[in-house]
Design a protein that fits this description.
The structure is a homodimer.
Chain A (H helix, E strand, L loop, with lengths): L1 H4 L8 H15 L11 H8 L3 H14 L2 E3 L5 E3 L20 H4 L3 E2 L12 H11 L15 H15 L8 E4 L2 H12 L5 E6 L3 H9 L3 E8 L2 E2 L11 E4 L13 H14 L2 E5 L23 E6 L11 E4 L2 H10 L9 H12 L2 H28 L3 E4 L6 E6 L5 H10 L2 E2 L1 E2 L13 E5 L5 H15 L2
Parallel strand pairs in A: 3-14, 5-6, 5-8, 8-9, 9-10
Antiparallel strand pairs in A: 1-2, 4-11, 6-7, 10-11, 12-13, 13-16, 15-16
Helix pairs in contact in A: 2-4, 3-4, 6-12, 7-12, 8-9, 8-11, 13-15, 14-15
Chain lengths: ~450, ~450
């Protein structure tokens, strides 16, 4: 048998080929259990390889349990259960689907501007970080100290929020942090109030933990807090700086009222401050957490303001929750890149973060003006624009007596991808179909082209 | 005393400055052992800082053993042994934080070798990736297609596992993936079997979802599967290639038996293949999932084999679970860096990954030989070494009639940090105290010095 089977191939070690062949024989039952195998010397001679080669092959088979050595008696085949065969074949490489290839302009909310990204500076710092000894270990499970200190300084200066660096937890995304946070909240708080319409990603994270959801209605004129007193929940998730998706901001009276409510019932407010950096008509409002940080869980991230793919988020926890959180997750590893954390800390420390935010506020303000004026020019009275004071998208309410679905499909047929808002509602909906248009990574020319194509798509 | 000493500096957290000052007082004997410290409130008032700040400082001191809390009586200074290491200098280019300052050699498992990291190549690719348009968006929630294709090719070539790229999910860490995966498993599977001793991080992740745990005993001779038939769970978490922490590998008979078990009861095996790249005496064993992927959830990661701080992990899901997973997490964003994913995909595509693994296997093999021979030389019959065939750590069973705690503390006093194994047990324990020694980021000289210091520390 052994003389004929082996035509050794190039590129694979010989011992591996011998091992593979014997494994196959044994698995197929070609060599029955408890049969002896040729000795190492015999096999080496018959295959014209070194004894080391056959020894290596046999040792691998012994280690994996296919055969056993019985001292001087030699090697024997072990019993095997009948093999469970599979015939999984790999599919050919997937190409992009046809429906994607025709898209010329994508108004996707959530991508960021590429031309103004501080590429050289970020690279320089990232390259430095890779030479540090501390980059070659697991990081702090709650985030690197140096980044937490920078975030604390930034929150104080930009959001009026005094946060002890040790109360800051760094994670990979708002959703990931809400899932971890939900674990310590769900015992005491079986239900939570969410805005309607509101950020679907947060709702998904709360549903992960089976929180009951109560809904707080939000209109273009603001949030209707009158229903708050009748609700049973002692936990609320809000977006006070820039309501997602409607774009309104809470007044200071509403903020005080909400803080008062939370104090009264000993509850917590989860403040998602996801894109507060980009307010065009005034300075960014101070965070809700700056009024009373004992009742507010503050969430921030670098996705909109820097780069979504970096996956860096953070939250500031009130002391009792912080203690619980640190106890619960003491033995967990960090959820986000140590390298990105160290790079971002240095980027902030060097003042580049503040420069970046300042620059991007102007860039996005120009793009916002561009999309608003284009839409007004092309559509005039047939659309209403919602949320042009801040953020990286607008809503356009379309008075054309068409469904949201129709509007999105027609746009796609003309090479434009636009986004629904119905997904943000748990109940009710806008009185007329309303489309979400992100503009952050489009040029003004692309925005113009996109609006022009939309005009064509919807004109019939 | 406290009014005068603190002129807080800029740039260092206050709690840290308080901590540093008290540590110094205690180390110098300025505050004698068993003297009471001011209460948290008193100290906060006199220093005009928040109670959180003083609490944090005290908690750090408690954690490091400088002081102890005695409930309502307050905090007291602990006895300290005279410093043994004042005249030992740190090896060059190691700057460590104050709390670690006495540790000369840290046998921490989980850090990686820095000198052989492919710095130039990784930088070049990472820098390229930053110029791509696709880097400026949110990524695919389940991981980038290009990386999944590379991982599929690697798994086939190196682990014998045929995985469809679309069945691969990319996440940030094993724990994060187990938390997400647990969400879809917990409905059908209220309990899970874990190895005892076993990876504590996995247990934590299962406890996150309140899985009931059943334990499968593992000994130095292997896993005792005889109890499997009496268990009620239909889900099992195992580390077949390199049992964590004991280091044994499952034989092919055990693998077949386990697959057979899972098929019989329609259950699943979670195979955590966390460091299978580093087997020194034979080739890495094929994955359990290569025998029957319909009943195996395969987990892999880049922490040991590349860089723990990069936070890149992946799992391969059987079809029914994949469908459930994709449905559950459709609206979730990716949990790990898009940039790292794109860089790793290119790194693998260029063949650098295979080169890296080959190189590191030799590097770590040399280190393993070094630590084993040093331990044998210095300790001879007083220790037994467990798990020298593979992985980035060994276990050393110490026959000195001392407790694990004593061994760790004495080592620390001599400037060596070593790690317990008792934390891996849910019930029972090793018959004698057993210490975990990681060596991956130590040089042979550092390993020698570390073992020498251990010999001194434990010689009495």
């Amino acid at each position: 048998m052994h003389n004929t089977i082996f035509a050794f191939k190039e590129g694979t070690p010989k011992y591996k080929q011998i091992y593979d062949q014997f494994k196959l024989f044994i698995e197929r039952g070609d060599i029955p259990a408890n049969d002896p195998l040729p000795s190492i010397r015999q096999l080496a001679d018959s295959l014209q390889v070194s004894r080391n080669t056959t020894l290596n092959a046999y040792e691998q088979l012994v280690a994996e349990g296919y055969i056993r050595g019985e001292g001087r008696k030699g090697y024997f085949v072990n019993e095997l259960e009948p093999l469970l065969l599979q015939n999984t074949s790999l599919p050919p490489n997937k190409k992009k689907s046809a429906s994607d290839s025709q898209i010329i302009i994508d108004f996707r909310p959530g991508a960021v501007d590429q031309p103004h990204f501080p590429l050289q500076i970020w690279r320089r710092i990232a390259n430095q970080v890779l030479t540090l000894q501390e980059s070659f270990r697991y990081g702090n499970p709650f985030g690197e100290e140096c980044l937490r200190e920078q975030i604390a300084a930034y929150l104080l200066q930009s959001r009026g929020l005094k946060a002890d660096p040790s109360a800051i937890i760094i994670g990979s995304s708002t959703q990931q942090m809400l899932i971890y946070l939900g674990q310590i909240l769900k015992e005491e708080f079986p239900s939570i109030i969410v805005e309607n319409p509101g950020y679907d990603g947060a709702k998904e994270a709360f549903q992960f933990h089976r929180f009951m959801l109560e809904t707080l209605p939000v209109y273009e004129t603001g949030t209707d807090f009158s229903t708050l007193e009748q609700m049973v929940s002692r936990l609320i998730y809000v977006t006070p700086s820039h309501q997602s998706p409607i774009g309104v901001s809470m007044s200071i009276q509403e903020r005080h009222m909400l803080i008062h409510w939370a104090n009264n019932i000993q509850g917590y407010i989860i403040e998602d401050d996801y894109d507060s950096e980009f307010r065009y008509t005034q300075q960014p409002f101070p965070a809700l957490a700056s009024i009373d940080s004992t009742r507010v869980i503050y969430l921030g991230n670098f996705s909109k303001s820097f780069l979504p793919g970096i996956r860096l988020s953070y939250m500031v926890l009130p002391q009792p929750l912080l203690n619980q959180y640190k106890k619960q997750f003491l033995h967990f590893e960090s959820t986000t890149s140590l390298l990105s954390q160290l790079t971002m800390a240095k980027f902030m420390e060097e003042g580049e973060w503040n420069r970046h935010i300042k620059r991007m506020r102007l860039v996005y303000k120009r793009k916002m003006q561009c999309i608003v004026s284009e839409l007004r020019k092309k559509f005039q009275q047939t659309i209403s624009i919602i949320g042009e004071q801040s953020g990286l998208y607008i809503l356009a309410k379309i008075h054309l007596n068409r469904s949201e679905e129709w509007l999105i499909e027609r746009a796609a047929l003309h090479g434009v991808k636009v986004y629904p808002t119905s997904i943000y509602f748990i109940k009710n909906h806008f009185d007329e179909p309303t489309i979400k248009l992100g503009f952050s990574n489009l040029t003004c020319e692309e925005i113009q082209l996109g609006v022009e194509l939309l005009k064509k798509a919807w004109s019939q």
